[in-house]
Q: What sequence folds into this?
């Protein structure tokens, strides 16, 4: 019982917190996958840039809260520029071009960050301090705040996709972009908007997780691997699937660290992905034909 | 209303259309007949702007449209009911119809209500299925939805690509009656059909396409009786 309350329960909560933040990252990735037909390799770097944009804003304003607004806006604007100048000319080519492009963008962003901010590890102070006694244990307030805000964001995203015209346009573009254009929708604009939104969400996840993890130019690489696994497990292109898979991976990773060192946990996560794909090749909620 | 002059087009480096000329006048229903793989769907895609013509001229109501994007062409009043319907399977009937309104600049509550009433007047079945996902509809219902979608847009020229394909005879009759009804309301229709009998029963005139060119044209009555029709279409 002591083991349960003192060790298992906090670790389970850690997993929930991490899963919710991972969900923000994976949702943007899965939407872009649906639109472009390729994984956006630069997504992890947008996550990293979110943390650095946050640090820069905090340096100027001394406020984490201002940074929480500014970072996604700045990275979202970078997303607009990137989409219009580099991705748009490639839409009529094979998806492979997009794959190579996003891979190159990832390198550019990562090295760009190293040039501007240097390679050393940085920390962000949590804006919410202290801890709360609950369920017989003490739990840091910032993590509770993180769980609350991530869940609220996920709910807001769900409302956006189901209740607003803009959200329905994005879903329709994921399903059949050409037909949507033929109905009178400026689809290139939908693409730009989606890419910007996905970049802003990644940036938000980057800054929100910064007080728990550390900030350095390579930080996106590890996260993106997990986010890829989440998207694959959720069923490529399925938004609901991504959120479910994000919680599964978040909690699994968190619990496994109790018994294994981090390298083995990474291997175990891949093992789980392979097992799930053997049983359900399209992931939890994959549709037929997404990959064709 | 629609004028196609010597249009050449294709996919990648593969030419499909070799100089197609065709006219559709205001208020007419025109059939475009021909066997599989003769370029009928390619022509529809070119008119809608999905494919760019390599040569030749496309005009809608006197305005050149070759080189415009599909959404610009849709906003001029051209609607496409595509081959295989292409409704959005993960979206509900309501969301699919709502997207039909995208070509309209004025999306006021009043116009929306009118258009919904109009669509439900023709297809009461869609009202019953309003909150169901598109993929749960039967083939005939999906076809109704694809037609309802361009009705929401208030398209003045509707391009229909094989609307009766794969439908049961009773549903073919429903679709046929709808096309007749649209025509009575002043909508112009260009209809691609495998089923020449159905097409010629609704349309005023027809063209026969073979290997990327128009090989025969005439009023429906003439096409029905001509030996050329039998030879080219095998009916």
A:
């Amino acid at each position: 019982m002591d083991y349960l309350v003192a060790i298992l329960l906090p670790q389970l909560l850690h997993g929930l917190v991490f899963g919710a933040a991972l969900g923000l990252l994976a949702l943007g990735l899965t939407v872009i996958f649906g639109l472009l037909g390729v994984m956006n390799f630069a997504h992890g770097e947008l996550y990293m840039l979110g943390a650095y944009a946050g640090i820069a804003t905090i340096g100027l304003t001394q406020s984490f809260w201002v940074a929480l607004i500014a970072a996604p806006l700045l990275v979202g604007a970078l997303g607009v520029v990137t989409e219009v100048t580099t991705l748009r000319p490639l839409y009529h080519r094979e998806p492979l071009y997009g794959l190579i492009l996003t891979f190159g963008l990832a390198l550019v962003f990562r090295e760009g960050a190293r040039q501007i901010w240097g390679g050393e590890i940085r920390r962000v102070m949590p804006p919410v301090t202290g801890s709360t006694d609950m369920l017989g244990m003490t739990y840091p307030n910032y993590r509770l705040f993180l769980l609350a805000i991530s869940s609220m964001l996920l709910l807001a995203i769900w409302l956006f996709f189901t209740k607003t015209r803009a959200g329905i346009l994005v879903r329709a573009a994921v399903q059949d972009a050409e037909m949507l254009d033929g109905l009178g929708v400026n689809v290139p604009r939908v693409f730009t908007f989606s890419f910007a939104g996905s970049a802003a969400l990644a940036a938000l996840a980057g800054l929100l997780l910064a007080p728990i993890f550390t900030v350095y130019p390579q930080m996106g690489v590890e996260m993106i691997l997990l986010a890829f696994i989440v998207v694959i497990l959720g069923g490529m292109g399925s938004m609901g699937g991504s959120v479910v898979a994000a919680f599964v991976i978040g909690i699994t990773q968190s619990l496994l660290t109790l018994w294994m060192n981090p390298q083995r946990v990474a291997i175990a996560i891949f093992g789980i992905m392979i097992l799930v794909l053997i049983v359900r090749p399209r992931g939890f909620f994959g549709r037929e034909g997404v990959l064709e | 209303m629609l004028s196609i002059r010597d249009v050449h087009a294709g996919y990648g480096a593969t030419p499909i259309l070799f100089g197609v000329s065709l006219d559709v006048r205001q208020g007419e229903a025109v059939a475009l007949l021909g066997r599989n793989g003769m370029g009928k769907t390619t022509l529809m895609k070119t008119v809608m702007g999905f494919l760019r013509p390599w040569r030749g001229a496309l005009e809608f109501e006197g305005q050149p449209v070759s080189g415009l994007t599909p959404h610009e062409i849709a906003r001029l009043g051209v609607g496409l009911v595509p081959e295989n319907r292409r409704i959005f399977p993960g979206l509900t009937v309501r969301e699919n119809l709502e997207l039909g309104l995208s070509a309209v600049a004025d999306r006021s509550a009043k116009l929306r209500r009118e258009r919904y009433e109009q669509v439900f007047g023709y297809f009461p079945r869609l009202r019953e299925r309003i909150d169901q996902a598109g993929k749960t509809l039967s083939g005939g219902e999906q076809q109704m939805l694809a037609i309802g979608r361009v009705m929401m847009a208030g398209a003045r020229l509707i391009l229909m690509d094989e609307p009766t394909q794969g439908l049961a005879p009773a549903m073919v009759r429903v679709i046929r009656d709808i096309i007749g009804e649209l025509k009575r309301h002043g909508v112009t229709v260009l209809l691609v059909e495998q089923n020449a009998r159905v097409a010629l029963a609704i349309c005023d005139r027809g063209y026969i396409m073979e290997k990327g060119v128009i090989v025969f044209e005439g009023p429906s009555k003439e096409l029905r009786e001509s030996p050329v029709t039998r030879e080219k279409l095998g009916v």
User: Anything to note?
Assistant: Chain A has a mean pLDDT of 91. The radius of gyration of chain A is 19 Å.
